[in-house]
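Chapter review: from sequence to fold.
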Amino acid sequence: MGSASMQLNINGQTRDLGDIDPEMPLLWALRDVVGLVGAKYGCGVAQCGACTVWVDNAPVRSCQLTVGMLTGRQITTIEGFASEDLNPVQRAWVDHDVAQCGYCQAGQIMSAMALLKRDPDPTPAAIERAMAGNLCRCGTYTRIIAAIQSAAQTLQGTAFYEVRTDDVELDESARVPS
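The token string follows.
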């Protein structure tokens, strides 16, 4: 016997996911049901950051959240920031040639944007701490730090996205360390 039709708010739109198991990880619902493939499967245990999305404007690991936990919550994926123009973080990624293979980049960018909302002028050490949960197999960490610093300078005194900075009640395994 199947469950009732599941609906989630994804990138500002109510999406009907149909009759899916409420225990399905959000990552698989985003990729396989909705067709948003920016968040990637990396480790499956919330340690690599490739699956980072925002729930209620806070970065989380989508591999550890089930769709049943997210009714009434606002989910934002990297696709939610798509527009004709790159935002300052995306522009900095291009300018600093951050991506090598590109696999981890959506998660990196989602975490970087959340960091810059919390701390608009982070030190290199603060960037390293905030981004420590996002692994890059290609080792572009120096370029990531430079891109975040560049984006921070570009963003001085502006706000191009809203991020709630208070705690979100989620399973601790999905929470991104701050």
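Two observations follow directly from the output. Residues 88-155 form a domain with the DNA polymerase; domain 1 fold (CATH 1.10.150.120). Residues 39 and 51 are 4 Å apart (CA to CA).
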